[in-house]
Structure formats: structure tokens, C-alpha cells
Amino acid sequence: MSRKPAPAQTGERARVELLFDRPQLLVQLFGQYDQHLVALENRLGVYITARGNRVGLEGTAEQVALARDVLNDLYQRLQRGEEVDTGLVDASIAMAAEPVLTGIIRADAGPGAPSVMIRTRKKTIVPRTAAQAHYMRELTTNDMIFALGPAGTGKTYIAVAQAVAQLITGSVQRLILSRPAVEAGERLGFLPGDMKEKVDPYLRPLYDALYDCLPAEQVERRIASGEIEIAPIAFMRGRTLADAFVILDEAQNTTPAQMKMFLTRFGQNSRMVICGDPNQTDLPGGVRASGLADATQRLDGVEGISLCRFTAADVVRHPIVGRIVEAYEGVEA
């Protein structure tokens, strides 16, 4: 593999050669037409050469170190049987550039060391950004977690994965997923069917996350048995949710009264995760009418409650989504 060298960068130059002992993994590591290596060159400003199972990196000492960390991270993921795609490459590059966070232990920390990962029936979820790693740690240590940030940062998906993992191991008896049934800026009019059929369209993202973590037949069986409950927030009134992992999605669309009602449903041996984007409420009155903004202001610093904040840099969908979020951040609706 040989390409035009990356533009010269200021700073001390360095060269490192990496040797990979499983050449059969290098096709996935490099990507189709070496697209993953091209992404590294473009994003980090390094020059990469690959011959056989040897990869040479050339650039400033800092850039070479980052590129080396990214390639080693991706290679270790492939050794564990994970898939590497362009989204993961972009996320790994972004995470390598993050400052090291004290207490964050990477999934490749080594045998016997606690790791940041969530295992479910269908897949193992590992963090793609430093904020996700922090969030996953908080999910295991705090009883109530507010996950705040734009769409595409994995707030709800990671919470559902953690809930499924705890349901599988028996540390909770029920999984309760809820969100307010608020139309996103449009009037859908009359919806046919019974109550379940009327509210299911609002809850579809929660079903999607469940089916990604559990086989379809298990999801259906556990819903039928009541182990998994998916319902709009109005169905939570008057209940005490004990021995349960409770997730509220799209929390920015709750009113302060609804949020207070929901939070006070918290019961013994339960964990509650509240996910939402404070800047994207669909309520009349905007952010000022949102129960999420009200709750985070009141509860910030309360013992046992954690606030995890995500930014556009944590978006793990197509890179253009992150750029769209950045363009809209700070713009009043």
C-alpha cells in the first residue's frame, strides 16, 4: 500500500512500525480499499505504509502516538470477535484524542481487570467515546442517572443494554421502559386500534433497542410475562417501581409535574435512567416548560443522583449527524 504522504505538520517527527500477528484480521482492520487507514491519515495527519503484517506510521510524535493507539484498539476489538466499521473507526479516533479520564478503565484493560462493557444475549457493547465510558460506569454505581445530550450519542441504547444485562443476570426482576406520548411538531390526528396500538408508534425506538440486545422471541416472551413493560409515562401514576430497571426516554417532553410524578415512583432495589436532550423539547413553551430542565436544576449534586452530559462530539451515528448537531446547538427553537 502506498499513497501520497500527508501534509507536513509542525513539531518533532517520529516513525513507528507496528507488527500484527494475525494477518487474517488485517483486511477488516484496513477496511475496503484501505478506507480505515485513509481515514486515519486524513483525521490525524499521519502517513501510513502497510506491507504484509507490518504497518508504518510517520508524523509528529503526538499524531503517531494517537494513530498507534487507534490501530491497536481496533485490532484488539477484532481479536475479541467484534466488527470494525467506519463508524467505529471515527469513534475510536475521537476517543483516542480525548484526555484520559481518571477511573475510566477501557474494555481492553487486560485479564482480571474490571472493564467498561455491557454483555447482552446478542452483542457486547463497549464505549465509543470517553463520555460513553463515564456513562457506563455511572450506570453501575448510581441509583438514578440523568443522561443529557443530543440524539445519536447512545444515551437510551446503552441504558437499554444495561437494563437487559441486569434482567438476564437476575439483579432486577423487571425492565420498565417509558416515554411521553408527545407529537414531534406535527399533529397525527386520530390513531386507530386499541390503547397499545395507539401508543406503540411513540415507543418504537425503545422496541428497536430491545430487539438489538435480545432475540425477538425472548423480547416477545418477556413482554407477555410482564418482565418487560413498555408504556407511556401516564401509565406510571400511582405505582411504586421496585426491583426494576426503569428508563424514561425523551424526558425533555415531560412537564415538571410529570417528571416529579415519575421520579417519585422509585422503589427498593431499583435503578432509574432519565434520557433526553434539553435543547430539543416538543412541548408548547419550549425548554422553560420542560420537566427535564427543571429536574436537573433541582437535583444536580443530590447524593445518589448522577448527571452525565453528552455533546456533538459524542454522536456515534454518521459523522454528518455530529456536524448537524453542532450547527444547531445554541440556536433557539
From TrEMBL:
Subcellular location: Cytoplasm
Database matches in InterPro entries: P-loop_NTPase (IPR027417), PhoH (IPR003714), PhoH2-like (IPR051451)
Chief location of this protein within or outside the cell: cytoplasm
Keywords: ATP-binding, Cytoplasm, Nucleotide-binding
Family: Belongs to the PhoH family.
Domain of life, source organism: Bacteria
Domain PhoH-like protein: 125-329
Keyword set includes NADP: no
Pfam family, one: PhoH
Name of the featured protein: PhoH-like protein
Organism placement in taxonomy: Bacteria, Pseudomonadati, Pseudomonadota, Alphaproteobacteria, Sphingomonadales
